[in-house]
Amino acid sequence: MGFKKDFLWGGATAANQCEGGYNEGGRGLANVDVVPIGKDRFPILLGEVKNFDFKEDHFYPAQEGIDMYHRYKEDIALFGEMGFKTYRLSIAWSRIFPKGDESEPNEEGLAFYEDLFKECHKYGIEPLVTITHFDCPMHLIKEYGGWRNRKLVTFYENLCRVLFNRYKGLVTHWLTFNEINMILHAPFMGAGLYFEEGENQEAIKYQAAHHELVASALATKIAHEVDPNNKVGCMLAAGLNYPYTCKPEDYFKSLETDRENYFFIDVQSRGAYPTYALKEMERKGIEIPFIEGDTDLLKEHTVDFISFSYYSSRTVSTDPEVNKQTEGNIFASIENPYLEASEWGWQIDPLGFRSTMNALYDRYQKPLFVVENGLGAIDTPDENGYVSDEYRIDYMRQHIAAMRDAVELDGVDLMGYTSWGCIDLVSAGTGEMKKRYGFIYVDRDNEGNGTLKRSKKKSFDWYKQVIATNGENLA
User: Fold this and answer.
1) Sign of the four-CA dihedral 210, 158, 50, 197
2) Residues 6+ apart with CB under 8 A from 21
3) Which of 21, 123, 307, 423 is the most core-located residue (most Cβ within 10 A)?
4) Cα–Cα distance measured from residue 353 to residue 372, given in angstroms and rounded to the nearest whole number
5) pLDDT tens over the chain, length 475 residues
6) pTM value?
7) Cα separations (Å) of 321 from 58, 247, 352?
């Protein structure tokens, strides 16, 4: 037995990486808009450099993205041609509430997504909607300090009520926060956090994390109340940490590093703060800002399924001499000598994918959903825009085979698979266009030049065949 008959094959994007139209349709400014490409990008993402608006000497790729705001019908038609069963996309919060704290939503923004969802259904595509994919209205950051402020829970709750009611019947699969553990690694991107000098950054990150965890539970509660057919998932940036050696200290380091990320999903899926996290925070003097009702809310409104991204495994060591880190990833890792790497230094590990799936399913015993996986690579199109991307096909073939093994041989309960960046889009990490993931080539470069013309790559027809055979034919 392979994948289920109703397995949800598809692709994934994020509003801030593809939509564009940053100042159209009543949309307000968001954190993701004001992050430029170039040397200042990472310090801003980390919350170390304050950048709350546009500067003339920088290029901001999210302003236009790949202009999906105006071209979504053309793009969804291509997804339909590939046979997508689902399309994972995200809502731009500031398109619905431009400032984030209004009492009434922006009708033009609501209508845009309603039309987009209806376009999906025209092709038999089920929308899988991420409510917040690194998206926070800039007004909420300037006025309230981002997710460090408890008031954002209320603003997020308002957003959720509007979305669940407006799109009842159009959307039944929801994710609350994309890669929620990214708060620890890129806090401005993950939670709209900017740190003043002298602040306890770790304490603020966990304060913001608590507010997002409470907001996620509230969203789950409201989704089930509005429509019992709604299924709500959490979303983890996943990938096991291997010990560099079999030295016991290295093994324990890998366990601790895995727990840093599992912590979020432990709360969202199991309904309570794990004891290891409480002990760690006690040692560090970090106080979690619980208020009355939080404990019950977290306990009673856990997620229905676990979704995650997987690109590579990681390796850790306690030896200070072993410190050569791989490049190009927000998650630092020591180079694993047994693995090859992508052009951006991400180590390619299909068996690590299967291992990660097993670890998550063993831990949570809830259905899994792979909502991001793929290869970022430099594509060279011919004069017709055609890319012979055998390297991408090879990467995906190996990973889908490993995923099939996890289902067939290990008994993992898997709902679906959406490859990341099914159409070329702006990289969340580096802001580049040349780091491409798509089955569809978009004529645009790192500086924003190009016609934005769409063209099919070789992987387009390959993935179409994978979907048509429900993952049986990977040749």
Assistant:
1) negative
2) 27, 64, 67, 69, 70
3) 307
4) 12
5) 799 999 999 999 999 999 999 999 999 999 999 999 999 999 999 999 999 999 999 999 999 999 999 999 999 999 999 999 999 999 999 999 999 999 999 999 999 999 999 999 999 999 999 999 999 999 999 999 999 999 999 999 999 999 999 999 999 999 999 999 999 999 999 999 999 999 999 999 999 999 999 999 999 999 999 999 999 999 999 999 999 999 999 999 999 999 999 999 999 999 999 999 999 999 999 999 999 999 999 999 999 999 999 999 999 999 988 866 555 457 778 999 999 999 888 999 999 999 999 999 999 999 999 999 999 999 999 988 899 999 999 999 999 999 999 999 999 999 999 999 999 999 999 999 999 999 999 999 999 999 999 999 999 999 999 999 999 999 9
6) 0.97
7) 38, 15, 25
Tokens of 45: 């993402």
Is 332 strand, coil or helix?
Answer: coil
Domain covering 8-468 assigned CATH 3.20.20.80 in the classification: yes
Terminal-to-terminal C-alpha distance of the chain: 19
Neighbouring CB atoms inside 10 A of 337's CB total 7
- Report which secondary-structure segment, H or E, holds 372: strand 368-372
- Report how far Cα 65 is from the mean position of its chain's Cα atoms: 17
Q: Which residue has the tokens 């300037």?
A: 142
Positions annotated as catalytic residues are 372
